[in-house]
Fold:
Amino acid sequence: MESQELKSRRPWIVGVSGASGTPYAAAVLRGLLAAGESVDLVVSRASRLTLLDETGISFRDAHWREDLATWLARGADGKPGTFGVTASDLADVRYWAAGDLAAGPSSGSYPAKGMLVVPASTAAVAGVALGLSKDLLQRVASVTLKERRPLVVAVRETPLTGQTLKHMVTLDEAGAVVLPASPAFYAGATHIQDLVDFVAGRVLDAARVPHRLYRRWEGELGAALRAD
Ligand SMILES: Cc1cc2nc3c(=O)[nH]c(=O)nc-3n(C[C@H](O)[C@H](O)[C@H](O)COP(=O)(O)O)c2cc1C
Structure:
């Protein structure tokens, strides 16, 4: 076999479900692209509503590349054109319709690195924990687990029911990283984008993808006091 064939494209699959937090997904997608990673995208039906609500974008399968570019260029405060992303920057991105259960990533033989579900709704958490595969996003997450590939699930809901907590334990025991979309304030946030980038950065940390989305804690605070 030619060595070129062995070095085939191995994307991260990003699943966007219908929880609040579409700016988290945009920041993760920008981070993956900035790191030179290939990306395959699945956008659930319900997430069209959160996207519309949070960004004003009516995301359509038929115009996904243009809509994605508009979305990724938008800041967390909703301002268009905050980031310099155009459709031509997305030439290597592949998009799979949420209802397409015959899509490439629905098979374990598809050469994916792993999957990041950002944000993850409690419905998606339940569906993956119970192995429902009711749409492509849930199916790809289940495939990622069965193939023992990295799965990061950035849950966004509060408060949480006992049922969702049990589903999260199930995912943890199956090998997923369950990562609440829970921004921290120690990294010097002054804008909404900083808080979003912190969560996105933690998602990329869990996937071992290098990034500069937030300032890491290096133990500098109160060093003098701690030395006492
Ligand atoms: C504006 C809006 C915000 C929502 N926010 C959340 C949320 O933060 N967390 C959540 O679990 N569900 C949230 N939902 C409900 C989900 O969209 C709903 O459970 C849906 O069935 C999820 O489907 P999916 O997992 O296939 O995307 C929200 C719905 C709407 C319309």
Q: What stands out?
A: The chain has one domain: 10-227. The mean pLDDT is 95.
